[in-house]
């Protein structure tokens, strides 16, 4: 269902409560990554596919908000 469908089946979480397994989106929903934790400075780490690097990368920036998938 794409990124919009993933967001629709999830609950918004604040930066202070984000945890590994949450989904992180860029502001226009054009890209999604998976939160894998935090670095030693408290920055949120997100794993995602980067077309520029042609690889899977872990980054700390570029994502506007996170959601927690509603799992039943």
Describe the model.
The chain is mainly β and 72 residues long. Helices cover 10% and strands 43% of the residues. It contains one helix and six strands. The chain has one helix spanning 2-8; strands at 10-13, 23-25, 32-38, 44-50, 55-59, 65-69. The chain has a six-stranded antiparallel sheet with strand order 1-6-2-3-4-5. Strand 4 (44-50) and strand 5 (55-59) form a beta hairpin. The longest helix has 7 residues, at 2-8. The radius of gyration is 12 Å and the shape is globular. The relative contact order is 0.29. The mean pLDDT is 89.
Quick synopsis:
The chain is mostly beta strands and 72 residues long.
What's the SSE blueprint?
Elements: H1 2-8, E1 10-13, E2 23-25, E3 32-38, E4 44-50, E5 55-59, E6 65-69
SSE pattern, N- to C-terminal = HEEEEEE
Helical fraction: under 10%
Distance between the termini: 18 Å
- pLDDT averaged over residues: 89
Indicate the structural class: mainly beta
Based on CA inertia axes, which overall geometry fits?
globular
Proportion of strand residues? 35-45%
Low-confidence stretches: none
Give the number of helices.
1
Task: Calculate Rg over CA atoms.
Answer: 12 Å
Largest sheet: 6 strands, antiparallel
Task: Strand order, main sheet: write it out.
Answer: 1-6-2-3-4-5
Number of DSSP-assigned strands: 6
Give the key terms:
mainly beta, 72 residues, globular, 6-stranded antiparallel beta sheet
């Amino acid at each position: 269902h794409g990124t919009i469908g993933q967001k629709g089946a999830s609950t918004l979480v604040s930066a202070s409560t984000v945890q590994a397994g949450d989904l992180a989106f860029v502001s226009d929903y054009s890209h999604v990554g998976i939160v894998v934790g935090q670095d030693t400075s408290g920055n949120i780490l997100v794993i995602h596919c980067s077309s520029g690097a042609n690889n899977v990368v872990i980054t700390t920036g570029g994502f506007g908000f996170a959601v927690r998938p509603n799992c039943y």
